[in-house]
Design brief:
Layout (H helix, E strand, L loop, with lengths): L1 E4 L2 H5 L4 E2 L1 H10 L6 E5 L4 E9 L5 E10 L7 E7 L5 H12 L3 E5 L10 H21 L7 E4 L3 H8 L4 E5 L8 H6 L5 E6 L7 H9 L3 E3 L11 H12 L4
Parallel strand pairs: 1-3, 6-7, 6-10, 7-8, 9-10, 9-11
Antiparallel strand pairs: 2-5, 3-4, 4-5
Helix pairs in contact: 3-4, 3-8
């Protein structure tokens, strides 16, 4: 069944309506009266609905059943990535959403080439959130990951450290593997931090250790900044039994 995200207020109605972009999408799909669709509130709840009327500029629905989404991961995984260049972040947001990330957090670090100013960041953030919403809809999720922008590396470390397991990936680490980090103790929330194209500076690694993060390697090969977070997230989802 086709899936649509609606506002929390619209979701609560017994006769919800698909309007604006949702209605346009429904017209492209050529939905007809009597067909079934799924609507989600973006927070893990979904309803199977019957199309009552698709002839107007909006699509009238009626709720058949309501339930919690069954597609959300058991583990709440937060993906932290330092600002990358060009449109690499868009790729990470899309794929991390498909893989089941709870949220995507972006932050500046010493070697970031891309550091958007406040004016451009507002427009970028709107676009990034739309990418997450589209990916969540396409992949059948019941929740849209929040895309969050922090103003400093320090803020990223402090926030990430609040998870049950907080890991930073560093290409010069040799001793601790991701497997060892995940086996250290049970976890329900996890933060995964990766750097920009040039990686992290040694002083930033020291800061991460002081904040309580575990420093890990992702193997003998150096991964691109857009590959590392997706590789780590995939490993976490496998470890959690999602695959």
């Amino acid at each position: 069944m086709f899936r649509f995200f609606v506002s929390a207020d619209e979701y609560e109605k017994e006769s919800p309506v698909l309007a604006d972009e949702n209605a346009a999408h429904a017209r492209v799909l050529r939905l007809k009266a009597g067909e079934s669709v799924v609507i989600c509130d973006g927070q893990g709840r979904e309803s199977v609905c019957r199309v009552e009327d698709a002839s107007a500029s909006t699509v009238q629905l009626s709720v058949v059943t309501r339930q919690a989404s069954e597609t959300e991961a058991r583990i709440l995984a937060s993906v932290y990535i330092a600002f990358p260049k060009a449109d690499k972040l868009e790729h990470v947001i899309q794929k991390a959403t498909e893989l089941g990330a709870y949220e995507i957090v972006v932050f500046p670090s010493a070697r970031c080439v891309s550091k958007p100013d406040e004016k451009s960041l507002k427009k970028k953030l709107e676009r990034w959130q739309k990418i997450a919403a589209s990916a969540a809809e396409q992949s059948g999720r019941g929740q849209i990951p929040a895309v969050i922008v922090l103003d400093s590396y320090t803020a990223a470390l402090q926030r990430a450290a609040q998870a049950d397991r907080a890991i930073l990936f560093y290409e010069n680490e040799r001793a601790t593997t991701l497997r060892q980090a995940l086996d250290a103790r049970p976890y329900e929330t996890i933060s995964l931090l990766s750097g920009p194209e040039g990686g992290f500076e040694s002083v930033e690694i020291d800061q991460a250790k002081e904040a309580g993060l575990m420093i890990c390697t992702l193997g003998k090969r150096i991964l691109r900044c857009e590959t590392a977070p997706l590789c780590a997230l995939s490993a976490v989802m496998y470890d959690a039994g999602e695959f």
